[in-house]
Amino acid sequence: FRTPLILGAPIEMEIEAVLKEPEAVEDTTPSMSILLVEDNVINIYVARDMLESLGHKVTEAQNGQIGVDLAAETCFDLILMDISMPNMDGMEFLKKIRAYNGGDHPKIIMCSVESDSAVIDMAHAAGADDYIVKPFTRNIIADYLRKHGLLLWQ
Description:
42% helix; 5-stranded parallel sheet; single chain; 6 helices; alpha/beta
C-alpha cells in the first residue's frame, strides 16, 4: 500500500490544523446543588474542590443526621455520602432519605474505602444509586456524574 506525499502549502495547513489547540467545549451542564455528607475534614475539602471545579454548588454535612436535616429542607440534585460516619451511618441515612422522600429523591452516590462486593451490594440494597471507592479523582467523580446524566462535559 503506497500513498504519494505531496509537499507544499496544503500539507503545512493540514499539519497546523492538527497541531492547533482544540476549541474549548462549552459547558451545557447546569450547575447542580450537591449535598456532601462526610465526616472527615480533609475528604470534605478534597471532594468539595473537585465538585466545585466541575461547576457545582456544594453544601456540606459532617454526619448523617445533619445530612438528613439538610435534605429535608433543600431539594438537592445529588447526594454524595460516606458510608461510615458518627451519629448516623450511611446505611441508616439512606433508609431515612428513601422513606422521607418516598419515591422522589435525588441521585445518591455512596463512597467508602471499602471495596468489598458485599458492602457495595448492601449499599445498593439500602438505596444507593451508585458506589465509589475512595480515594477517587476528579475524573472518576466526573465519570460517575456523567454515567447518571448529571454531567455532560469534563
